[in-house]
Amino acid sequence: MTRRQHFVIILILGTLSTISPFSIDMYLPGFPAIANDLHTSISQVQLSLTAYLVGISVGQLLYGPLLDRFGRKLPLYVGLVIYLLASIGCAMSTSIDMLIAMRLFQALGGCVGLVAAQALVRDLFPVNQIAQVFSLLILVVAVSPMIAPTVGGYATVAFGWHSMFIILAIITALILVGIYFALPDGKQPDDSLSLRPAAVLGSFFTVLKQPQFLTYTLVGGIATSAPFAYLAGSSDVFMNIYKVNEQEYGWIFAFLAIAVIAPTQLNRFLLRRFSSEQIILATLVYQSVVGLVLVAGTWLGVYGQYGLIAVLFLFLCGQGITGPNASALSLAPFARHAGSAAALMGSFRMGFGACMSAAVSVLHNNTAVPMVGVMTSCAVSALVILLIGQWIIQYRNKQRAIDEPLTEVLL
């Protein structure tokens, strides 16, 4: 693979991975306008975000077996066309119920990009390069929260909130062209893999039996749910409590996105000296401490707008490190079932994200406490699960090392 091909593949896989983040981030500045136009409340509009996350969670479980059975490209084309049509449906929504339904279909189509991108990384790159490739993908993905809310804010003011979904449809059409002309096929279709429910569940069960997958998928899923709590609550916190406008919110969101981008690239250098396991542990300890400071300061009312932004920045710095390392460790044990593994991993993450965004909506009390409280609970819970999971993995490895020589002697 030449450097040019490597760059093009990373770029396409990155854009595939940005479909869902862009779909979430871009319409956040439009929440007040959507609520006003559809004669509903901000908390009801937040449910359209929850519906999107639920759709991603469920949809990824469907695409995993399809990507293993039919290869990578055919399910990609089908999913992205569904997403494109649903985006147009979102733009034409005349009620909050219609918008929520269209967002669900949009997610069911667009989530194929998340699963396919991760499976293709496993197909096209050596195992020892996966964590670094994921770091590069996150660099591309991290551009979306810098651009999307700003574009969404200006588009909402200039053309109305409907225009955001038309922009998403156009972007998806361009991605489809790039996939057709420049993306390698990856794993070929496997006719031996059945799509019968029992066989599909058997593939998922095979993946779930792997302790390394289960540990790091749970850790990654819970830890990376913190930004979803932030996504669900930030527009209300900054636009309703601190009274910033759509454009100002877009710039705040873009600034906080830097907290994810910079550590993503730092991870590439950390991997030269430390293992992914060590990096995740240190990062979650850091986030848990910062999160507790964030909750305490918010509860006591010591942060103003800029103080809150500063501590949120420090907390979000950990997200760009935990995500790629957890993904690499989750997928490393698999080759044949990489699509199913990627689907389960992505489904867990988005499922947890949906729960956290819903929790922020349910706990809404016109303060920032629900948002920062849920964010911190994600980091602390992930740290506890990591410590337990690493102990189980080490124990099983020791038992295997003891049992194997005994088996050889008996034979």
TrEMBL record:
Its main location: membrane. GO terms for biological process: xenobiotic detoxification by transmembrane export across the plasma membrane. It is a multi-pass membrane protein. Residues 9-397 form the Major facilitator superfamily (MFS) profile domain. GO terms for molecular function: sodium:proton antiporter activity; xenobiotic transmembrane transporter activity. Gene3D superfamilies: Multidrug resistance protein D. Keywords: Cell membrane, Membrane, Transmembrane, Transmembrane helix, Transport. Belongs to the major facilitator superfamily. Bcr/CmlA family. This is Bcr/CflA family drug resistance efflux transporter.
